[in-house]
Amino acid sequence: MFEIRRYTPADQQEWDRYVDGARNATFLFKRGYMDYHADRFKDHSLMFFVGKHLHSLLPAHEVGDTLYSHYGLTYGGLIMNLKVTIADTITLFQELNEYLKAAGFHRVIYRPVPWIYHQVPAEEDLYAIFWHCHARLLLRNVGTTIIMGQHIAWRKDHRRRLKNAMENGIRVERDASLEEFWPLLEANLLKRFESKPVHTLAEMLLLKSRFPDKIIQYNAYQGDQIVGGITFYVTPQVLHGQYSSTNDIGKQTGAMEAIYERVMYHDYADCPYLDFGSSTEEQGSVINEGLIAHKEGYGGRAVCYDTYEWEVR
User: What are φ and ψ of residue 140, in 5° steps?
Assistant: First the structure.
């Protein structure tokens, strides 16, 4: 039924047009985002056709004899529009396994798009890979998400820090400077976790230039001094905090609370979900209890980010 083609740069416009109309896609699947680090991954993304009609997409890369849902992305899986049905999807994965076997692959590592990012329910792939690929759950990470419209009361310490922000004249700027924020972020990650941001400043500036309305920087200032900031990814269903950080003054004066109050109750009050991201270590198996409690204090609760595995048969 399906013609399975490996993506090439000549397919970029067709790929991106499909992403724009898909029911479970975000701008992370646009080639301008996926390909900014093309030198780090051997891309093996796939396009599924029925006749001349592009049916669906699979962002992926290869390592040896394993096909991975693209690890340059937070999530992946089959990208589908409204025309894709469960029967189609079962056949697709059966034929995908035949394609992979013929191409010399022995294993698939698959990370579906979490349900909060779906504009319309899109879990046909989960049914198909369980029953027809005999997939098993390999890893489970957890993020913290709130439903914006419910306006769940913040925990007392967050409310107190928000009051501090108001009393200390903390000013929040939307679409603020990434260049000002990045040294603060790098210093904080190094001090707390001995780590670095996944993106360099140059990479984030490049992505911002390609997706100016999808990557929004909020900075908090006391006077002219930056004291905190959050880099948000804006998708149709979810406002995702990609990076957040404060300095000592920001912690004391409620910089984070000032930013979250602005986005949750004003700028993005109509967005269905706010995703604070994960608070785990060691591939999701260990929870950073302090960090996740901080996020839960805004009313957030758990959404799982799963990874599946199956052998190509």
Answer: -135, 115
